[in-house]
Amino acid sequence: MRIQTSHRSYQYEDSRNPGLLIGITDERGVRFATWSYDDSGRAVSSQHSGGAGLTQIAYNADGSSSVTNELGKTTVYRYQQIDGVKRIIAIDGEPSPNCPASNSTYTYNDRDLVLTKTDAKGLVTNYDYNDRGFEISRTEASGTTLARTTTTEWDPNRFLPIKVIEPNRITVYSYDNQGRELSRQSTSR
């Protein structure tokens, strides 16, 4: 019997940032993933072998980040410090023939949880949470005839949904003592 082994190696060759992964070489000895970083240790690019999937990140003077994908389309992420945590407050993306603009804005509640999301079409999604910070209600396209609300009931002691009520169905879950799902029953409404 012949034993086959494979070897994958990981490169950390950036002298400025020796703890950051900059490459992965596969079992054939081919470097198939590469990352690069700026002097502050922030990622500035990611790509696969031959430049496939090249993604570049620029850190703008106003604190936003511009991410350019392999098709040359740029998305700008805008942030705000909320209670000492950097949160996304807006995403502005370029449209292309196969993808609409990905513009979105976000607001947060006093517990730093997403309160609203407004998409590129101006549709607002409202979120509500329980005392544990778990989402209990989400209304998409709020205030319109397209409004769609989903509510979730949670296990009182674990991060496990026990009932999800959607516009067209209700799903009930059960779990064992270790939190493994035992059953899931969906019924139409």
From TrEMBL:
Species of provenance: Pseudomonas amygdali pv. mori
Top-level taxon of origin: Bacteria
Record-given protein name: YD repeat-containing protein
Gene3D superfamilies per the UniProt record, alphabetical: RHS repeat-associated core
